[in-house]
Task: inverse folding
C-alpha cells in the first residue's frame, strides 16, 4: 500500500511500511539526508521538517499519517524567507558541527513565517525544542533577529 | 554504480603526488559530493602538491588537507587560513578536505599519532602548516621567475595573483601549476613576518567558515549520510550492564520481520542487519539475548559513590607536593574544608554513532568522524589480520565529538567482518544507546582543605581526587600521560595550580569501575572544585574573591620550589602560563564585567580562572536567583589569551559553545545507575542546555603574537565555577554536588 504525498514540491509515492517514521522515509527511501536523526522521540528537533507549512518532528510521525500532505525538508526550503535565513546563518557563521542546523533552520523559518519580528522570548518558545550540543544558541538567536531585519528591508 | 567505482580507482591511482604519497581523501563514491568541503575528481588530476598539506589545481583552487577531523571547532577554516596566509592566496580560492590515515604524514605533533583532541589542533599544526604554505609560495614564485626570466626577488603575490611589477606581468596560481610541480621542493623557506598577516587574525568578516554553506543547505556529509551500493544498515543489541558478554541469542522472531537480512554476534553484542534502519530496529525489538553477566558492573551509583568515598579518606598517589601541608594545617588559625561530587556524564553528541565499513579480501575502508585515527586504524588492522596500510579511513564531518567519537568505527568493522564482507555495513546507534551503552565522563569525588593564618592568608592547601582514570584503559595515551600512578587528566588544573600557596598537596586515586571512561569537553571538575573552594576560603578570610586571586597570582609560579610533580615530562616545563598572563585575563574579565559594581536583590556576580589547554581564561558570571530558587544565568564575560588569534570569530564561537556545553551539564546533566544499568534513556531525563537558558556571552581576546594555544575547550573550564560563585554571592549557598538543580 503506497503512501502518496508532496515532497519538496514534487508528487511522490512511497511503497514502504506506513508505520515507518517519516524521517527514515525521507532519509533512506527518498535519499534526502539533510534531515537528521538525533533522538527518535521528538525531543531534540534535529529531524524538523515542514508538514503543510508547520514544523514537525519527522522522527515521531508515521508515513501513513502524512498521506496527501506537503512536506518540505531543508533541501527544499526555498523562497525569500528561507534564503534570508540561510544568508543570516552564513553571515554570522552560526554553525559548528552543523548536525542540528537543518532542524534549527527549519524551525527558524517556521517561526519567522508566523512571527516576522520575534522577541527573544518568542525565539526561546519556538526554538527550545531544538538542541544544539555545540552551543550555537547565541548566534541562532542573533541570526533570527538579523533575518527579521533583512526581510523588513 | 559502476561508473562511481571507476572514478574511485582513478582517483586512488592519480593521487600519488610529488613530495609525499598520499591516498585519495576518498568520499568520491556513489553519491553527490558535499559542497566545498571535499575534493572533486577534476582537481586531483592536474595539481601541484609540494607537500602533504595542500594542493593547487589548474582551476586555481587551493585545497588544504586537514590532518584534524572537523568536529565543529572550525579547524578546516583555521588550517586553511594559515596556509592561505603564507601562500598569499585569496580566501575565495581556498577549500579544505580531510587527510587520509597516515601517521607519518599527519600525526598530531603533541600526541605522536594521528588524533584530534586536547584542544591542540591549531597549537600543534600552526608552524607546520605555515611552512607548507610558505614552501608552496616559494615554488610558485620560482615558477613565475623562470617563465618570465626575471629574478624571483622581483616577484610578489597578492590575493592569489603572482606579479612582476616592473613588466606588469601577472599569472594565476593555476597557470603556474605545471611549472611549479616540476621544481624541487625547497627547504627552510622563510615564513612571513606576522606584521604582514592579512588573513590570520582578520576579524572583518572576510575569513568565513568554509563549512557554513554545506551545513546550512543539508549537503554536509556525516557518517549517518554515507551510502554505498548494496549497503546494509545494522543496529546492535548491547547489554544493559557494562562488561556483559553474549551467552546465546534467539533470532527466530527477528528473522520474520520483512527487510531483515542477517543477525550476527560481535564482541560487543548482537548485530541485526537489514535493508533499512526501521527494519533493523524492529528486528532488534524481537531479538532475545541471554547475557553472561559474570564480569559485569552490577553496582548502582550509590554503591559506587560509597566506594569512592572510602578512598577519599585514604592518602592517594601524590601528584604534587610543595612544602609540608600537614604541619601547616596543624598550625593554621582557621581551616576550611569541603567535599565535592561530580556525576557521571554522557557526551550526547547530537549525531548518535553512525559509520560505514566496507571489507574486501585484502582491504577495509571506513567512513567515520572518529578522532583517534591511528589507534582506530591499528585496531581495525589487528581485528582483521591486516597491515595498517590495508585499512583506509575516510574522515567525514562529525555530528559532535566532545570526547565521545574516538574509535566508534571499530564496531562497524566487527559487523562487516562477521558477515565476511558480503555487503558494506552502516552501523547506526540510537539515542538510548548513546546514553546507556557509551563511554562516559566518570564520577569524581573531591576533598579540599585549606589553612589560613591569623591574617587570613592562605598558607596550606590540600586536595584529594577520586575517580576512574580516563587513560589507563588506552595504552597509547596511558604510556605518555600516566606518571607514578597519576593520570594527568585527573589532576590537571589542580596539580598545576599557579596560585602562590606555601604548602600544597594534591593526591588522586584511580577508582575501578567497569563503565568505559573517556575525556569530556573541557573536563572541568578540577577547576570547579578549586575555584569554588577559593570563594569559600575568601569568605572565611573576609576577603574579596577577585582580590584574593590577584594576591595569589602576584608572583611568577616558576620561581616556586615544587618537591613532587607527577606530570608527563613533555608537559613539565610549561605547566604554568607565562607570568602574568593569568593575572591579565583575570583583570580583563573583572574590568569588562564591572566587578564590584552594585547588583540588585537576588542577583550575584562570581569570578573564576583557569589555565587550561595552555590557555589562560577568566570569566565573570552574573546570575539572578528567583524566589523559587531557580537560577538564571544572565551574562558571562570571558577573557581569553590563546596566543595569536588565527580566526577571532571562531574563537568567540568556541567560547560561546564550550560555555553552553559545560553550563548545561552543571545545571542539569547526570547519568545514574541502578544495579549496573543506566537509568536515563533520552533527552527528557538527560537534560542538556537549550536556547532558553543560554546566557549572553561576551568574549574578550587578549591581543597576542605568541604561538596559538587551545581554544576549543578552555571556555568551558571556569564557567560552572563562576556561576556557582555568583550564586554563592547572591544566596550564601555553595553548590558542592553537581548538577546544581535549584538553590
Result:
Amino acid at each position: 500500500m503506497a503512501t502518496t504525498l508532496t515532497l519538496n514540491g514534487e508528487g511522490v509515492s512511497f511503497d514502504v511500511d506506513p508505520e515507518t517514521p517519516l524521517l527514515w522515509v525521507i532519509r533512506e527511501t527518498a535519499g534526502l539526508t539533510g534531515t537528521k536523526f538525533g533522538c527518535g522521540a521528538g525531543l531534540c528537533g534535529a529531524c524538523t521538517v515542514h508538514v503543510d507549512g508547520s514544523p514537525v518532528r519527522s522522527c515521531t510521525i508515521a508515513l501513513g499519517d502524512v498521506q496527501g500532505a506537503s512536506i518540505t525538508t531543508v533541501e527544499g526550503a526555498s523562497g525569500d524567507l528561507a534564503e534570508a535565513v540561510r544568508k543570516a546563518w552564513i553571515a554570522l557563521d552560526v554553525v559548528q558541527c552543523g548536525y542540528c542546523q537543518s532542524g534549527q533552520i527549519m524551525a527558524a523559518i517556521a517561526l519567522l513565517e508566523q512571527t516576522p519580528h520575534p522577541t527573544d522570548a518568542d525565539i526561546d518558545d519556538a526554538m527550545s525544542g531544538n538542541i544544539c550540543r555545540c552551543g550555537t544558541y547565541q548566534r541562532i538567536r542573533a541570526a533570527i533577529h538579523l533575518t527579521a531585519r533583512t526581510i523588513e528591508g | 554504480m559502476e561508473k562511481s567505482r571507476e572514478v574511485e580507482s582513478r582517483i586512488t591511482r592519480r593521487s600519488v603526488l610529488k613530495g609525499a604519497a598520499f591516498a585519495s581523501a576518498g568520499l568520491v563514491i556513489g553519491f553527490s559530493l558535499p559542497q566545498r568541503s571535499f575534493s572533486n575528481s577534476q582537481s586531483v588530476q592536474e595539481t601541484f602538491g609540494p607537500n602533504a598539506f595542500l594542493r593547487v589545481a589548474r582551476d586555481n583552487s587551493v585545497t588544504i588537507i586537514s590532518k584534524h577531523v572537523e568536529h565543529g571547532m572550525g579547524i578546516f577554516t583555521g588550517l586553511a587560513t594559515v596556509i592561505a596566509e603564507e601562500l598569499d592566496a585569496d580566501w575565495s580560492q581556498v577549500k579544505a578536505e580531510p587527510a587520509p590515515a597516515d601517521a607519518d604524514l599527519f600525526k598530531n605533533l603533541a600526541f605522536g599519532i594521528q588524533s584530534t583532541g586536547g584542544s591542540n589542533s591549531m597549537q600543534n599544526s600552526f608552524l607546520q602548516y605555515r611552512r607548507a604554505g610558505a614552501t608552496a609560495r616559494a615554488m610558485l614564485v620560482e615558477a613565475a621567475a623562470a617563465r618570465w626570466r626575471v629574478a624571483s626577488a622581483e616577484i610578489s603575490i597578492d590575493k592569489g595573483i603572482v606579479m612582476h611589477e616592473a613588466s606588469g606581468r601577472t599569472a594565476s596560481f593555476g597557470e603556474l601549476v605545471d611549472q611549479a610541480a616540476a621544481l624541487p621542493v625547497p627547504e627552510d623557506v622563510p615564513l612571513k613576518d606576522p606584521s604582514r598577516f592579512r588573513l590570520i587574525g582578520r576579524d572583518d568578516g572576510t575569513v568565513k567558515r568554509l563549512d557554513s554553506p554545506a551545513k546550512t543547505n543539508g549537503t554536509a556529509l556525516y557518517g549517518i549520510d554515507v551510502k554505498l551500493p548494496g549497503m546494509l544498515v545494522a543496529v546492535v543489541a548491547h547489554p544493559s550492564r557494562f562488561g556483559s558478554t553474549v551467552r546465546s541469542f534467539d533470532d527466530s522472531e527477528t528473522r520474520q520481520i520483512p527487510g531483515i537480512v542477517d543477525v550476527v554476534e560481535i564482541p560487543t553484542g548482537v548485530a541485526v542487519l537489514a535493508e533499512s534502519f526501521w527494519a533493523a530496529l524492529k528486528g532488534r525489538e524481537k531479538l532475545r539475548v541471554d547475557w553472561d553477566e559474570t564480569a559485569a558492573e552490577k553496582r548502582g551509583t550509590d554503591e559506587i559513590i560509597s566506594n569512592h568515598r572510602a578512598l577519599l579518606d585514604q592518602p592517594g598517589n601524590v601528584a604534587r607536593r610543595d612544602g609540608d601541608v600537614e604541619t601547616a594545617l596543624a598550625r593554621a588559625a582557621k581551616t576550611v574544608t569541603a567535599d565535592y561530587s561530580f556525576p557521571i556524564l554522557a557526551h550526547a553528541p547530537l549525531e548518535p554513532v553512525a559509520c560505514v565499513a566496507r571489507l574486501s579480501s585484502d582491504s577495509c575502508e571506513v567512513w567515520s568522524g572518529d578522532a583517534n585515527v591511528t589507534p582506530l586504524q591499528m585496531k581495525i588492522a589487528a581485528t582483521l589480520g591486516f597491515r595498517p596500510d590495508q585499512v583506509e579511513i575516510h574522515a567525514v564531518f562529525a555530528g559532535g565529538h566532545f570526547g565521545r567519537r574516538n574509535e566508534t568505527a571499530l564496531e562497524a568493522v566487527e559487523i562487516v567482518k562477521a558477515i565476511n564482507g558480503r555487503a558494506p555495513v552502516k552501523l547506526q546507534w540510537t539515542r538510548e544507546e548513546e546514553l546507556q551503552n557509551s563511554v562516559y565522563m566518570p564520577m569524581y569525588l573531591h576533598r579540599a582543605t585549606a589553612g589560613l593564618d591569623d591574617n587570613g592568608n592562605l598558607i596550606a592547601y590540600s586536595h584529594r581526587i577520586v575517580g576512574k582514570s580516563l587513560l589507563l584503559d588506552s595504552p597509547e595515551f596511558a604510556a605518555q600521560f600516566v606518571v607514578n600512578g597519576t593520570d594527568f587528566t585527573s589532576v590537571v588544573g589542580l596539580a598545576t595550580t599557579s596560585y602562590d600557596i606555601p604548602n600544597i598537596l594534591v593526591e588522586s586515586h584511580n577508582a575501578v569501575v567497569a563503565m568505559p571512561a573517556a575525556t569530556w569537553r573541557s573536563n572541568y571538575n578540577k577547576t570547579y572544585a578549586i575555584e569554588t573552594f577559593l570563594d569559600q576560603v575568601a569568605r572565611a578570610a573576609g576577603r574579596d574573591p577577585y582580590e584574593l586571586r590577584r594576591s595569589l597570582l602576584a608572583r611568577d609560579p616558576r620561581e616556586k620550589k615544587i618537591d613532587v610533580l607527577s606530570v608527563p615530562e613533555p608537559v613539565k616545563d610549561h605547566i604554568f602560563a607565562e607570568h602574568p598572563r593569568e593575572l591579565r585575563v583575570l583583570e580583563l574579565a573583572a574590568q569588562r564585567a564591572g566587578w564590584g559594581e552594585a547588583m540588585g536583590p537576588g542577583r550575584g556576580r562570581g569570578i573564576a580562572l583557569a589555565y587550561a589547554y595552555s590557555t589562560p581564561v577568566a570569566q565573570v558570571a552574573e546570575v539572578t536567583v528567583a524566589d523559587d530558587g531557580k537560577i538564571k544565568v544572565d551574562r558571562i564575560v570571558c577573557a581569553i589569551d590563546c596566543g595569536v588569534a588565527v580566526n577571532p570569530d571562531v574563537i568567540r564561537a568556541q567560547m560561546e559553545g564550550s560555555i553552553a556545553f559545560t553550563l548545561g551539564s552543571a545545571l542539569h546533566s547526570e547519568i545514574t545507575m541502578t544495579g549496573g544499568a543506566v537509568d536515563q534513556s533520552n533527552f527528557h531525563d538527560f537534560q542538556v542546555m537549550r536556547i532558553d537558558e543560554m546566557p549572553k556571552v561576551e568574549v574578550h581576546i587578549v591581543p597576542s603574537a605568541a604561538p596559538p594555544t587551545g581554544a576549543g575547550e578552555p571556555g568551558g573550564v571556569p564557567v560552572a565555577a563562576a556561576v556557582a560563585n555568583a550564586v554563592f554571592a547572591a544566596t550564601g549557598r555553595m553548590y558542592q554536588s553537581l548538577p546544581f538543580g535549584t538553590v
